[in-house]
Amino acid sequence: MHVPAFTRAFGLAFVLALASLLPAGPAKADDTTDGARVIVKFKALGPLMRAARERGDRGPQQAAELAARHGLGLRDGRMIDARSQVVWGDRTLTSAALAARLARDADVEYAVPDERRHALALPNDPLLPASSSAALAAGQWYLRAADATLVSAINAVGAWSVTTGSSSLVVADVDTGVLFNHPDLTAKLLAGYDFVSSTTTAGDGGGRDADATDPGDWTTAGQCGSGQAATNSSWHGTQTASIIGAQTNNGVGMASVGYDVKILPVRVLGKCGGTDSDIIAGMLWAAGLSSVPTANPNPAKVINLSLGGSGSCGAAYQDAINQLVAAGVTIVVAAGNEEGLAVGVPANCAGVIAVAGLRHTGTKVGFSSIGPEVAIAAPGGNCVNTTGSCLYPILTATNSGTTTASSTGYTYSNSSNYSVGTSFATPMVAGAAALMLSVNPSLKPAQIKSLLQTTARAFPTQPAGSSLPVCHAPTTSVQDECYCTTSTCGAGMLDVGAAVSAATNAATPTASIAASATAVAAGSSVTLDGSGSTAPGTRTITGWQWTITSGTAIAGFTGSTNAATAVLKTSGVGSVTVQLTVTDSAGQQATQAQAITVTAPAAPTAAIVASATAVAAGTPVSFDGSGSKAASGLGIASYQWSVAPAAGSPSGLASFTSATNAATATVATLGSGSGSFVVTLTVTDSLGQASSTNATVTVTALGPTVSIGAATTTVVAGNDVALNSTGSSAPAGRTLTGYQWSLVSGSGIADFSGPTTGATATVTTSSAGSFTVQLTLTDSAGAQASQTQTFTVTAAATAAGGSGGGSGGGGGGAMSGWWLVALAVAAWCVGGRRKGSSRSQVAGRGAWH
Fold it and tell me: Where would I find the H helices in 71-173?
């Protein structure tokens, strides 16, 4: 549906001037040429104050100690009381930066800049104060503190003593667009968007585009409907934007409620108003909830809607409003200018702050709509008289052009071209909401509405005998001026100063956690830093408390949990959530949680160092596993040793002679064995992860040294051979424990004649030939060794004699060796004699020749 702009119901006007001084805004830190200057108060029970009391110090002079702790150049200033002093810093830090550093010290209760203050003064905008010579004698009367005459004044000056608003706080003015070149707005406007889709009513020659400039919404007779009169351009968006955020204290024109906040112009109204679809699209884009047709780089936290129409809240508006409220956007809407009739759309939608209009005396201004949907009331401007100058209108920025803007016509409404209407009460509330968010950014729309209502001043009551009626629930009959009630005009009259103070008091600190890592291996430590936590306004963070809300089985703090930093030591795998609760100097608290993922670290590394990898049988081997390593942050929790024979090696080759669950172990080798054995070490870390390694040791046989002793190795048959083991020996550390003699060959000509298990033995021979003796020795380790020795046996000699027939008689047997010797001797003798005689003879057979 088409929604007419409200300004056509009112006209434009200048207002009277303020009559009293107004505060210029909070003082800023003043760092002198001597460097930063901070007030420090120390904790009563902290180590520094305890030591000072023990020394009998009159008051704190702790600059040297603080300087050493923080690596700063500091010097003592004057003592303030028993626990407070001034600390001077060098020129490398501002007072605010030094205060922030010192406030994190564990001994400091708070540290704040030692600022220079000045007498309060009013902004220098010439149209703000009252002046009988001005075109608007009352000036911007509605911004001052209320008094007996200006009952409905909103006390914006009281708010400015707390905050002049944040330049990062954005208020969207969803209206006709703005005049970007107005000198009181040009520095305060962000690039907006034009959502007027109809080319016939846009007035700028096109549909939607990125230019939110107001081209003028003038109309010709009948253009907006049969019988509709022609109208001049209202410059309505420029007017409402100036109330929210005209540049203030710039020596030009007017002041605004929002002072330093920024304005995002969103054009949704053109000639003959605007459509719901354009308005809703503009609302969603303004808050950054829609990127159609393009993304909004400056999302607004407050939306001002000085527009509306009759009817009930439809689903489209309510859906859009629900989205905006859920996103934390505060929506302020004009109740309407229907002369006491019901609140219009979208002011009657749930979730918005609907604003009714008041006269300067606090009664309902005649044109304002009323009803239970109204949340609060603010000045809508009123003239008092029916002729002549309008006395109490709302001063706004405008242009003198009646169709398109005049390049030389940037001006302000005045007493003849005046501005009145709920369209101008609404941006006062929007500006108030922006100031509240500047001091307390965490406020939700419902909280802002509640604080506005609870701090509102009560409506004036109907005096006895007054002919002016009390407002009643809207009907189909108009109600002009009447005494407001909370069921018709909202909770009361807007008090911006009180609302901002309440928002400040309700503001909680912001807890911030900076973790050295958010994913670590078990056993690692995580450093948590909460020093980035901030307190609102001039308050400071005075306390920190760290807790583990989940995962206590796998992590714990290793030090203090009530300082700005903490160290978390992990010991298991999983997830741990740490919570930081900070407390500020007003006692307000805030919390922040940080999840830390703990992963399994690398398994431990088992390492074995063996005293030897090859040993003789019976030699012990030591093993050292102390070189095993666990992942960083973990330790080796246990050791376990085991031993087994290598493939093909005998069992029992090695066995432990020490404990098998320590970092070192000793293995004894079987003295009688040989082969290889494998020692395995399994280490387990403090997380329960295990790893194994092994070492192989080769065992070589080591037995006795066998020596067989005998007088000779050749004997005559029938003689005995005496054997001994005199040269035999056992390896070092052992003794010979067993002897075994045996014949390995020649058992037909020789045999043992006595024991065969002693150190000596005797072999008896019976005939010629050879035999081999073996000696097997056993030592005390069970090792054995054998040695053999071969002996030669010769035949025994036979004696001469027998019958005369001797050898001639047939076979006397073989001739013995002795006979052969005798014959040789005889032959020698005969030969010798023949050499000496001329005759020779043959012995034993005939005569000489």
Answer: 95-103, 156-160
- The one-character DSSP state at 659 is -
**Spatial separation of the C-alpha atoms in residues 285 and 279, rounded to whole Å:** 10
**For residues 332 and 352, is the Cβ–Cβ distance under 8 A?**
yes
Query: Residue 515: what are its φ and ψ, rounded to 5°?
Result: -100, 140
pTM for the full model?
A: 0.60
Distance CA(430)–CA(172), nearest Å, equals 9
Tell me which residue of 244, 449, 242 sits closest to 328, measured CA to CA. Answer: 449
- What are the angstrom distances between the C-alpha of 84 and each of 60, 61, 81, 541, 735? 6, 9, 5, 17, 89
- Report DSSP state, residue 392: B
**Catalytic annotation present for 131:** no
Nearest alpha-carbon partner for 16 in 172, 201, 142, 167: 142
For residue 836, the one-letter residue type is: G
In sequence order, which residues have a C-beta less than 8 Å from that of residue 389 and are 6 or more positions away?
137, 383, 415, 416
175 belongs to the catalytic site? yes
Residue 586 has pLDDT above 90, yes or no: no
Amino acid identity of residue 444, one-letter, is K
Q: Is 236 a catalytic residue?
A: yes
Predicted confidence (pLDDT) per residue in 539-563, tens digit: 889 999 999 999 999 999 999 999 9
For the packed helices 63-70 and 95-103, what is the interaxial angle rounded to 10 degrees?
80
Degrees, nearest 5: CA angle 188-190-195? 130
Burial of 108 (0-12, 13-18, 19+ CB in 10 A): buried
- Contact call for residues 85 and 60 (beta carbons, < 8 A): yes
Which one is catalytic: 175, 217, 260, 685?
175
**Structure tokens given for 18:** 């303020």
Residue type, 81: D
Q: What is the DSSP letter of 806?
A: G
Strands 514-515 and 374-379: unpaired
Residue in 107, 182, 217, 236 annotated catalytic: 236
3-state secondary structure 511-524: CCCEECCCEEECCC
* pLDDT tens-place string over residues 792-819: 999 988 754 444 433 333 333 334 444 4
CA distance 412 to 414: 6
Nearest to 156 by CA among 409, 435, 399: 435
Query: How high is the mean pLDDT of the chain?
Result: 86
pLDDT band at 703 (very low <50, low <70, confident <90, very high): confident
Q: Report how far residue 826's alpha carbon sits from residue 844's, in angstroms, rounded to the nearest whole number.
A: 11
Interhelix angle 422-439/445-455, nearest 10 degrees: 110
Helix (H, G, I), strand (E, B) or coil at 212: coil
CA 144 to chain centroid: 48
Say how far apart CA 210 and CA 391 lie, in whole Å.
39
Beta-bridge mates of residue 374: 354
Cα three-residue angle 531-532-533, rounded to 5 degrees: 90
Choose among 433, 442, 565: nearest CA to 500. Answer: 433
| 78 pLDDT higher than 80 | no
529 strand-pairing partners: 514, 565
**Active-site pick, 306, 423, 672, 725:** 423
Amino acid identity of residue 828, one-letter, is W
